[in-house]
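JOB MANIFEST
job_type = single_chain_structure
chain_count = 1
residues = 321
[input]
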Amino acid sequence: MRNTLPLLESTDFPAVSRRQLEVLQVNLGYLCNQSCVHCHVAAGPTRTELMDEHTIECVIEALSLPGIHTLDLTGGAPEMNPYFKKLVLAARARGIQVIDRCNLTILLEPGYEDLAEFLATNEVQIVASLPCYMEDNVDGQRGKGTYLKSINALKNLNKLGYGAPHGKLGLSLVYNPTGPYLPPPQAELEQDYKTFLAQHYDIQFNQLYTITNMPIARFGNILLAKGEFETYMNLLKDAFSAANLTGLMCTNQLSIDWQGYLYDCDFNQMLNLKLHDPQGQQKFHIRDLLTADLNQIPIRLADHCYGCTAGQGSSCGGALA
């Protein structure tokens, strides 16, 4: 797979300042039961990278830092890490909110039959990938049969109380474009999702996140193969909105890879743009979090950052505008 970083390194993206650290987003590994074409971490069933127990312990220790209130677990399929439940239980015991970025189909895989109930019992918030509410589009992105499996998983989650208005079990869905264009307005698309899923499947959820595809990893290589990379970058730059700068997820969040190294965001993680001090002398690891002064460390930028500020903006929590 071609690294798109050389095409992104030279940038005029404006400087961004870090605020109080509040969220740890932890990638538990690239192993996944799916191989989605838009996946910016190029996860799949043949990947072997998984966070080990020692690094999990370091993450648990870091949760004691003042200001941190959320542990955001991602992958791959984060649930396929053998220490997933251990980490969730440790975080909840400390009063930390846990988000599971779930692909839904993992809930139906052999060996994971108790997973949905475990998530509900521990009040884990679910952010679930459903890149479209139409079957053909989802199967085209994620593989034949994925849509109906996702629907069945959503029904099971609803039975456990997920997605109920004003309930404790939050269920958010994630939309990704199927091609080199920006997501439509989040609020309008959310209503389309809710209407369609309610009418056709009696499914409810709390909110929709629209996330712009980044020109990196698997999607970046598709753009290169089709000769669309430069066109897509121009689209992102032309749609730049300075109003989105203050809401960027890198201002209050850190991304941690499966080996424990720190990044400003998970997109930087996939470009191997590790967090480092201004002199470039130290590559920060999760074990350094207890003593490092991150406010003195500039956020590393490249042209892919335009993906987070284009149009309505984009983050792991959906649109910024």
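[summary]
The longest strand covers residues 97-102.
The beta strands are 23-27, 70-74, 97-102, 125-129, 171-175, 207-210, 253-256, 262-263.
exit_status = 0
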